[in-house]
Amino acid sequence: MTALGRGDGTSSQRQVEERVASIFLRRLHLDVPDRDTDVIDAGLLDSLALVQLLATLEREFSVSMDLENLDLDDFRTVSSTARFIVGRTGGSSAHEALGG
Amino acid sequence: MNPLSLMSTAPATLEPRPALSLGTEPARGPSVESAELLHELVAAQARVRPDATAVGMGEESITYGELDDATNRLARRLRYSGCEPGDRVAFLLHKSIDAVVTIVATLKAGCPYVPLDPDCPAWRTAKTVRSADPAIVVANTGTLASLKALGSELRDGPPLPVAWMDDDRPRLEGIEVAFARRDVDAEPASELPCDRNGDDPAYIFFTSGSTGAPKGVVITHRNVLSFVRWGVDTLDMGPEDRNSGHAPLHFDLSTFDLFGSFAAGASVHLVPPETNLHPRRLADWIRRTAVTQWFSVPSVLTYMEHFGVVKERDFPSLKRLLWCGEVLPTPTLIHWMERVPHASFTNLYGPTEATVASSYHTVRTIPASGADPLPIGTPCGGESLLVLDDGLEPVPRSVVGNLYIEGTGLSPGYWRDAEQTESAFLTVSGPVGPRRIYRTGDLARVGDDGLVYFVGRNDTQVKCRGHRIELGEIEAALCSLDAVREAAVVALHEGGFEGTVLACAVVPAHDEAAEPAQLRRDLSQLVPPYMLPSRWRVENELPRNRNGKVDRRRIQEDFAGPKEKNP
Lengths: 100, 567
Description:
The complex is a heterodimer. Chain A is mainly α. Helix content of chain A is 54%, strand content 0%. In chain B, α1 packs antiparallel against α2. Chain B starts with 39 loop residues before the first helix and ends in a 7-residue tail after the last helix. Chain B is of the alpha/beta class. Classes of the chains: A mainly alpha, B alpha/beta.
């Protein structure tokens, strides 16, 4: 994705995807087959897991979520979730996250 | 009448009744004639208001006249294909107008209905089907994948007869299509005589069983009619009402959504399940559909609160908000009462074994503090709540005891399980003859205000977002996995949105480390999604107490502490 308008957009997106995939696996214990799997259609994400995901993303990427105006379709896949995060942070958190 | 009597008598009123003691006469219920049958509610409305909407979902709806005709046709076809009165008819259908038609038609054919959850793994649904032993299973294109998996599970037995509610008949292993939609449409719409009576079963709902096998709760026409009659009267439901149908059709509160509406001549509007994850769409649905009654489990209300989707003076059409299935956090109730001041707020309580609900409490003023507990209240019409000690003697006020239920809602027992029936449904002697009481497994106390308060459970059954779960069923499924040597599942009470959360401590069978995500995936082939633990720990051994039993409290503490490691 270069829609971010940044030269390093692609690598940021990839790094954030890895981090998001790790959150799904290690924090939510969800085995997501690949980054384009629709976790809602696949029945992996219920309301409880969704709320946990949002809280974990807020914490791990230091983004704040405006819950009232959130489009939950942004969190249907690992890649769309990463895109949301990159859009909010410009990808900077990916480096922090990898460092930590 | 003894003022301490826990019994309630018809007519139902909104005034709280005094709590009772087991020494008084058995409760009397709303009057239901033994000849009255549940499906006659539909036929009666079809005569009075044939053009009024009975059921709606999305852009589709069906009038009482159409519902009566469609259910007569399907009832005839079920009968023609060999369903005898008393045979079970199961259905594997998503929530839809077709599913409602199937329910009513099944009753008209003289058969109890058995709802199957399309989201449940086939392995477990097959256990339910083997136990229910249905004459036919109703399915359609929407559940083709689930039906295919079910047929595959059952392939060693005789083919499963299927009523196919679409036209293109599928060819599936283990399945034999008995008839399809066009065969139903060819039947006459005239009424089919039904020689059942009110004490015959209307449905069998299978709930989680502690040993791993789901157990069937048998509920009669009279059980449901008694509750419905009380509910319509007490809640003042009428033909102008537009009621929500939020619960899945395998939840027993769905029977009040349907038959309560049919008794009142109201319409029931099925909430599309795909809105459940989208609180804003759920709120939009309530506004757009202009429902006058919303009835759901509490977690839906906490979820909508969490996302802040309820605005000031929202949902102007809403007259009543009802919830049951678990404890609603008081702060959530305050949040809703402040924003929807024009609605009434009623908590219903009761296990499936006592039909939808056995007690209720209408909250009249906004609680002063979020720490105030909400009572489960006073008995519904024809019901009694008994708080007893181990010797079945009433405990004094404020003392915690075992909660028993007596009255018109009591199931005749578990399906083909005399042993479990005997242990949960007790016959005790009273001054005017034997009395039958149901041991809920809930702990309760009667407060100084005379209202009953739920305190907890005396076993390992938990409620998780409205689902009733036996932890033993999850443990049995886990232990059947090759990778697992031992497992313990506990409930954590997190409060707030999370409510009750399932947590699992597992000891792997082999030396190599087991991955929780993989265990969870394997477990998802055996139990429905709502039974999958969300927190996991892999341990070398489970903590045990002095008697060698698994120390569940210790496991709960381990999870609750700040010790869960970050990845």
